[in-house]
UniProtKB/TrEMBL annotation:
Pfam families: GDP_Man_Dehyd. This is GDP-mannose 4,6-dehydratase. It comes from Methylobacterium phyllostachyos. The lineage of its organism: Bacteria, Pseudomonadati, Pseudomonadota, Alphaproteobacteria, Hyphomicrobiales. Belongs to the NAD(P)-dependent epimerase/dehydratase family. GDP-mannose 4,6-dehydratase subfamily. Its cofactor is NADP(+).
Amino acid sequence: MRTALITGVTGQDGTYLAENLLQRGYKVYATYRRSSSENFWRLEALNIRNHSNLVLLQHDMTDFGSTLRLLDRSSPDEIYNLAAQTHVQVSFEQPFTTAQITGLGPLGFLEAIRARKAETRYYQASSAEMFGLVQGTPQNETTPFYPRSPYGVSKLFAHWMTINYRESYDIFAASGILFNHESPLRGTEFVTRKITSSVARIVRGSGGVLRLGNLNAMRDWGYAKDYVEGMRLMLQADKPDTFVLATNKTTSVRDFVTLSFRAADVDLDWSGSGVDEFALSRQTGQRVVEVDPAFFRPAEVDTLIGDFTKARKTLGWFPSTDLHALCTLMVEADLRRLGNDSYR
Ligand code: NDP
Ligand code: GDR
């Protein structure tokens, strides 16, 4: 039986990847960090928390000793390193923590693999946020990086370390530069799920206004389930490499809002501009969206759009879900879960 280790299994991607690998017959060791209350709602939502081939282990990315013991305990064939401080705006408030978890944490895994001299294959969760102030469009594996946040800088450190360990020690270390990917399991602090969960509340009559920051930001949004399959494919390739996963389409936050309300049969009228921009529901006349400068970032990544040609040609990977379908499935899931407390 093939064994995999997934860090960050309580997050969006960790949960979908665990489901994917369990369905393929893997034994999956999966890590979560200690907290005062359990955080397994995503595993429960996919009904895999008590799967007989899933072993949940405590681990913290900032503790190298714990990383060494984790590999001794699991001896995995494949490691998917997904755990990180992932929120870009938070990284401006907590740059040290972000650097320790998101930047240095992955180095601990690379060092542990090097020390063990095992054939373990390693996946590093790199990010389109590393492109930052973009130096070429669309972005591919050769586009220069210019990160615009402590998160982006930390990810870039881990990305280059992955390449350096690949080249220096002949480790099978792959890096996936993934563009934004979303799902009903996305955290509500990220803009897409913040939008779809607010749409559900507003159309169910709970009132409230959706307050957002930069409506002009453009993102290349795909479906998380497609992207975890891309991670798996990277570790089945003949040789370790770097791959972009994206949809090659970009959409503004404003248009994502419009699409999401549309998925709940609400049409919007946008008015004003800058911090005074807002949207009214055409059906009720109610003000449903406003700009709130509290959500502006000290430095913004304006536009991302990825070119996934290399992944398509080498791995046979392509995105299966367009943004309209993604919005619809997220809004429908949020409407359904309003009546079900366990499904946040
Ligand atoms: P999430 O924020 O949903 O999950 C992050 C995971 O990391 C959680 O399980 C979290 O645990 C865990 N974690 C955070 N800090 C620590 C720590 N100190 N020690 C151990 N675990 C920790 O992220 P996603 O699933 O969306 O993303 C997965 C990976 O892919 C991340 O590395 C992210 O940066 C990267 N990525 C994501 C993209 C996206 O669009 N989703 C795009 C590109 C890259 P807890 O639940 O306890 O907080
Ligand atoms: P991002 O995702 O920063 O791209 O990082 P996020 O959803 O947080 O923001 C996307 C864009 O929307 C703008 N925005 C807002 N963002 C949030 N969170 N909340 C708001 O109210 C809001 N209003 C406007 C942001 O300014 C930004 O431009 C995600 C994370 O998953 C990273 O871990 C990952 O590496 C990158 O995607 C690729």
